[in-house]
Amino acid sequence: MPPMIDATHDPRLRSWVSGADDHGDFPIQNLPLGMFSPPQATPRAGVAIGDHILDLKAAAQAGLIVNECAALAAGASDGLNALLAAGSAVRADLRAQLSRLLEAGSPKRAAAEPMLHAQADCTLHLPARIGDYTDFYVGIHHATNIGKLFRPDNPLLPNYKYVPIGYHGRASSIRPSGAPVRRPVGQQSGGDSGPVFGPCKRLDYELEMGVWIGSGNPLGEPIDIARAPDAIAGLSLLNDWSARDIQAWEYQPLGPFLSKSFLSTVSPWIVTAEALAPFRIAQPARPEGDPAPLPYLLDEADQAGGAFAIMLEAFISTARMRQEGIAPHLLSRGPASNMYWTVAQMVAHHSVNGCNLQSGDLLGTGTISAPTRDGFGSLMELSSGGKEPVALPTGESRSFLEDGDRISLRGVMEASGYRSIGFGACDGIVEPVR
């Protein structure tokens, strides 16, 4: 069963950490997990609270957190895999202890306060060792928009509404927010004269969610849709940067390859499944005439609460905009509920053939777009494949990304009666080929 709402979600909770109560992403009701290095120190587990990070290793060693979660937090030096694998009960215990430790009036404040570090002074790492990465294609409006560019009369292929489409990506090139985005080089179509080789000219972003696997499954034993939520440790933001011209040349017959594997950016904090409990909503009903999911993908509880009330946004800031002090320009805004398949359906389908998912594996949702242009999740859609450039406040325009452009993804969860929480930064600046 998905995690339940408890005292840690109380909107009346306040924290003694300065600035946490007014923080847009990380109030005490969030408590996302990640890996960080304090100044002149080695990587260790941490929890984000306001603009600070609490050192979980130090807290565990001092006895400020106890039980199994303390040992797992203290032992995390290269990723949170063991803590994620321990399951919801262990993470919920850690969350409850941290909530009591960080709430206003905590008797342990004096002991915990020296263990806080300003995020700005720390280095953030990937939150887990990513063994495998699979990118899905569950944003139906994105799939339709892209399909229209190539197949105007038949944008969605016949299998789309029956099977969660995905491809196996490259885990080694995933980086946390802030890592530079080196413009890739590769083969592109040169028309009748054959392919050309050189820098990508149609570099794009993709507004996605990242799904972190907690407890996986043994090889040969699928994860049933009813227990798929138990395998999901939490969510992050994900930008699966795409070289559209390289992709167009290589994707047939086996799909994306070098057009995707050069870099993917993930927000470094895992908003845990436990923190997400108040923001679960019903999966939107399928349009009339669409087929019902096959039985292995259909669960009443998942349909009733397997989607999330997350508002996603993408911003661009060109080098000129930053030089002139102009605020980032909003490219798109739309809800994550525009996913045709739930994250539980992604997990169930991924494992139905016996594939073994492992703790720390990352699944991407694929680009999440809204039905209208103001919610399109990529420049490929916004510019109609480069035919209609996007106008920017400086008088510049973009069909695809240019060197110096920064893309920033943001996500906020809101629900009536609860404190809104967010994911933090998922940013990357495009650098030229060297």
Characterize the structure shown.
The chain is α+β, with helices and mostly antiparallel strands and about 425 residues long. The protein folds into 2 domains: about 5-125, Fumarylacetoacetase, N-terminal domain (SH3 type barrels, Roll); about 135-430, Alpha-Beta Complex (Fumarylacetoacetate hydrolase, domain 2), CATH 3.90.850. It is built from 11 helices and 27 strands. Strands 6, 7, 8, 13, 14, 16, 17 and 22 form an 8-stranded mixed sheet that branches. Strands 9, 20, 21, 25, 26 and 27 form a 6-stranded mixed sheet that branches. Strand 25 and strand 26 form a beta hairpin. Helix 2 (about 65-75) crosses helix 4 (about 90-100). It is globular.
Per CATH, which architecture of the largest domain? Alpha-Beta Complex
- Helicity range of the residues? 10-25%
The chain-level mean pLDDT equals 97
The counted number of beta strands is 27
How would you sum up the global shape? globular
Extract low-pLDDT stretches.
Answer: none
How far from one another are the termini?
50 Å
Tell me about the largest β-sheet: 8 strands, mixed
Class of secondary structure makeup? alpha+beta
Return the CATH class of the largest domain: Alpha Beta
Q: Give the CATH superfamily of the largest domain.
A: Fumarylacetoacetase-like, C-terminal domain
Strand percentage lies at: 15-25%
Total number of domains: 2
The CATH topology of the largest domain is Fumarylacetoacetate hydrolase, domain 2
Helical stretch count?
Answer: 11
